């Protein structure tokens, strides 16, 4: 580690290299921490979590009872022991609360004054965070499974909505109406995601085992469908041609640079696709157990090398290396199924929520101080004024 | 060993039963202590470059992946020796399942890549075995040709099969076969009668099995009994693991166990099969690898 610091100081190394190495080390050391807790407000399972992009300070959570809670993640108390307090709640007593379970929540990508939630009561509400009243309500014909707003969009403010209906709806925030419908799926749409690289590219996943990639400016249909065999018709049986998975596709996630797309399906597989041409990169993650009938929220790490993907797997969160498919570790701590997880990129922390009504914070372990031997401790006493930053606590005795 | 077993049991037991009795902090403490016993994960950039020989001798879980560069061909040859040739009166070539390789090597993507390289070179053939969408059988090409031709001795279909093996197999690297490919590469004439008769002959000899109208899977002749014994044996071995206390058994102990009449292959073959197909979980412990039944 000192080597990295001196190299960065001298200009031998790119500044990014030190950052990546340290982020990776921190992600590999994620652990449940005694000192960090999240306030327990929900009385039913937690379906979705979102951390805002601007400051990374506020977190939204939506539960199976329709309750939405906003938490403050920042620790201003100067003590290591900290509980993330709930700042405000849309509880059962509010007259605007969703009647059934909230499936997806997302902060408005440009500031925290607004957030959008969609629920099984067939509505999607756009909330004003200050007053906790919905500024806009969109009605749909079927249960809304998911929605997503593009994090980089400047030219449009569309929300893509996946419902029980086969059509993907695009709602416009500026005009408050549903302006476009994307037809192409033959089953319920379980997950939608905008690309973080191009503001007009949208990926949608459905129970008909297919994942379609759209350019919303194009009227005539999807750009391409992801094919797990990459066009090799010989591998599949004839029904499974041109499908992304051999079961329902219920999880979608783009990597941070938008170059790759991850999909998970009920055939217990996770696949990594090249998002530009739709080819399956054939990275083999093994069996990623997936029994969810609704969408599954997976998340990817940011600015680590190698990148990691966090997948809720039963009652634990599995961490895989993105490009080699190796299972790094399983984060165990929940008592019941985990439904969603979200990575905090600035502090390399992972928040996961599940049916046990808990949100757990997985925090990187701090480096342990080196235990010095008895002999050197006596000598070290006279050098007690050495600045700890110059103490060599990392090189091994054999060097 | 007892302590590690207890903690393993504790962490493995369905916690839903215990959460009423214990509070959250206690259980999370327990998790933390289990997790601290693992060596901390170190990313590659921070690993010390020198090899610490002798310091890191693990005497339980053997780590195969770090041994050297991945050699799939050598592993295949090792696994092929587990295949019982006498059982089928030498009529079948030695078959290894693709997921048995995953139980030996940790990096599945690399295994897949090397396998596709070997298939490109024409040394290895892959077949869709039919009972599972993901179960693929691997046979060395030379082996396959020898056995098929031996099986065709004295039969009328010999000529067709010969021509098929010579012309089509080297050029076709897929798992299945369809009408256009057949007409284009196999036959010189495209008269309907000859095509139908030839395709019927190939199916009869066992080299092709029907998949759809106008398309066929490549297959191994006489492999029906192999599939039957494999499924039977797999069920029996899984049953052995399930009947054990706590649904888990030491891998070394399972290898020594006596098999009943249901298990026709060597038990090691079946063990690689169930580990690779992820029907059991492989847990490294201080007394060796433990196989635990995954019940869904």
TrEMBL record, chain A:
Keywords: Chromosome, DNA damage, DNA repair, Nucleus, Phosphoprotein, Repeat, Ubl conjugation pathway, WD repeat. WD repeats lie at residues 95-137, 182-217, 242-283, 331-362. Gene3D superfamilies: YVTN repeat-like/Quinoprotein amine dehydrogenase. GO terms for biological process: proteasome-mediated ubiquitin-dependent protein catabolic process; protein polyubiquitination; response to light stimulus; transcription-coupled nucleotide-excision repair. It comes from the Eukaryota. Pathway: Protein modification; protein ubiquitination. Pfam families: WD40. It is found in: Chromosome; Nucleus matrix. The keyword Cytoplasm does not apply. Residues 371-399 are annotated as: Disordered. One of its GO terms (cellular component) is chromosome. The keyword Nucleus applies. PROSITE patterns: WD_REPEATS_1, WD_REPEATS_2, WD_REPEATS_REGION. Part of the CSA complex (also named DCX(ERCC8) complex), a DCX E3 ubiquitin-protein ligase complex containing ERCC8, RBX1, DDB1 and CUL4A; the CSA complex interacts with RNA polymerase II; upon UV irradiation it interacts with the COP9 signalosome and preferentially with the hyperphosphorylated form of RNA polymerase II. Interacts with ERCC6/CSB (via CIM motif); promoting recruitment to lesion-stalled RNA polymerase II (Pol II). Interacts with KIAA1530/UVSSA. Interacts with a subunit of RNA polymerase II TFIIH. Substrate-recognition component of the CSA complex, a DCX (DDB1-CUL4-X-box) E3 ubiquitin-protein ligase complex, involved in transcription-coupled nucleotide excision repair (TC-NER), a process during which RNA polymerase II-blocking lesions are rapidly removed from the transcribed strand of active genes. Following recruitment to lesion-stalled RNA polymerase II (Pol II), the CSA complex mediates ubiquitination of Pol II subunit POLR2A/RPB1 at 'Lys-1268', a critical TC-NER checkpoint, governing RNA Pol II stability and initiating DNA damage excision by TFIIH recruitment. This is DNA excision repair protein ERCC-8.
UniProtKB/TrEMBL annotation, chain B:
This is Serine/threonine-protein kinase 19-like isoform X1. Belongs to the STK19 family. Pfam families: Stk19. It comes from Salvelinus namaycush. One of its GO terms (biological process) is positive regulation of Ras protein signal transduction.
């Amino acid at each position: 580690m000192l080597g990295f610091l001196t190299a960065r100081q001298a200009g031998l190394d790119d500044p990014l290299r030190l950052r990546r190495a340290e982020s990776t080390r921190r992600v590999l050391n994620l652990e449940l921490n005694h000192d960090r807790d999240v306030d327990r407000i929900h009385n039913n399972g937690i379906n979705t979590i979102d951390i805002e992009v601007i400051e990374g300070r506020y977190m939204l959570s939506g539960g199976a009872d329709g309750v939405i809670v906003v938490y403050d993640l920042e620790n201003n108390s100067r003590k290591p022991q900290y509980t993330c307090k709930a700042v405000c709640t849309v509880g059962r007593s509010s007259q605007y609360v969703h009647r059934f379970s909230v499936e997806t929540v997302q902060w408005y990508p440009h500031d925290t004054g607004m957030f959008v939630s969609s629920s099984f009561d067939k509505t999607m509400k756009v909330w004003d965070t200050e007053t906790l009243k919905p500024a806009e309500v969109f009605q749909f014909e079927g249960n809304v499974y998911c929605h997503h707003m593009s994090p980089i969009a400047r030219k449009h403010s569309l929300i893509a909505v996946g419902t029980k209906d086969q059509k993907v709806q695009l709602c416009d925030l500026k005009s408050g109406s549903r302006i476009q419908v994307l037809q192409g799926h033959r089953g319920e749409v379980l997950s939608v995601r905008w690309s973080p690289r191009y503001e007009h590219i949208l990926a949608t996943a459905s129970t008909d085992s297919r994942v379609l990639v759209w350019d919303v400016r194009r009227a005539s249909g999807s750009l391409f469908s992801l094919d797990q065999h990459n066009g090799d018709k010989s591998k599949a049986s004839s029904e499974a041609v041109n499908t992304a998975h051999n079961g329902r596709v219920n999880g979608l996630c783009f990597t941070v640079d938008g170059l790759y797309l991850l999909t998970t399906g009920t055939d217990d597989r996770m696949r990594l696709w090249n998002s530009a041409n739709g080819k399956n990169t054939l990275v083999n993650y093994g069996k990623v157990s997936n029994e969810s009938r609704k969408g599954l929220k997976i998340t990817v790490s940011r600015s680590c090398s190698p990148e990691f993907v966090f997948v809720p797997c039963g009652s634990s969160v599995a961490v895989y290396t993105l490009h080699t498919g190796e299972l790094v570790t399983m984060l165990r701590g929940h008592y019941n199924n985990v439904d969603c997880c979200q990575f905090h990129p600035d502090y390399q922390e992972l928040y996961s929520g599940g049916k046990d009504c808990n949100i757990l914070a997985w925090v990187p372990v701090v480096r342990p101080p080196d235990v010095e031997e008895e002999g050197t401790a006596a000598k070290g006493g006279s050098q007690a004024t050495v600045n700890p930053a110059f103490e060599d606590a990392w090189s091994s005795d054999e060097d | 060993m007892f302590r590690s077993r207890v903690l393993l049991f504790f962490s493995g037991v369905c916690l839903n039963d215990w959460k009423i009795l214990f509070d959250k902090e206690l259980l999370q403490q327990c998790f933390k202590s289990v997790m601290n016993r693992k060596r901390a994960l170190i990313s590659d950039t921070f690993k010390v470059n020198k090899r610490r020989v002798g310091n890191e001798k693990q005497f339980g879980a053997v780590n195969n992946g770090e041994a050297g560069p991945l050699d799939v061909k050598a592993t295949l040859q090792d696994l092929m020796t587990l295949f019982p040739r006498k059982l089928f009166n030498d009529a079948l070539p030695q078959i290894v399942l693709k997921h048995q390789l995953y139980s030996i090597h940790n990096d599945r993507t690399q295994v897949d890549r090397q396998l596709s390289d070997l298939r490109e070179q024409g040394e290895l053939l892959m077949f869709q075995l039919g009972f599972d969408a993901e179960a693929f059988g691997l046979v060395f090409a030379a082996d396959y040709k020898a056995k098929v031709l031996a099986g065709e001795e004295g039969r009328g279909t010999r000529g067709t099969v010969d021509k098929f093996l010579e012309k089509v197999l080297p050029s076709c690297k897929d798992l299945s076969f369809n009408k256009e490919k057949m007409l284009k590469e196999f036959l010189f004439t495209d008269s309907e009668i000859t095509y139908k008769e030839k395709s019927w002959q190939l199916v009869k000899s066992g080299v092709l099995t029907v998949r759809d109208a106008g398309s066929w899977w490549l297959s191994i002749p006489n492999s029906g009994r192999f599939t039957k014994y494999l499924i039977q044996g797999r069920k029996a071995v899984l049953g052995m693991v399930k009947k054990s206390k706590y649904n888990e058994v030491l891998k070394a102990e399972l290898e020594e166990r006596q098999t009943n009449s249901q298990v026709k292959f060597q038990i090691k073959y079946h063990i690689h099969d169930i580990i690779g197909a992820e029907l059991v979980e492989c847990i490294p412990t201080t007394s060796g690898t433990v196989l635990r039944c995954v019940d869904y």
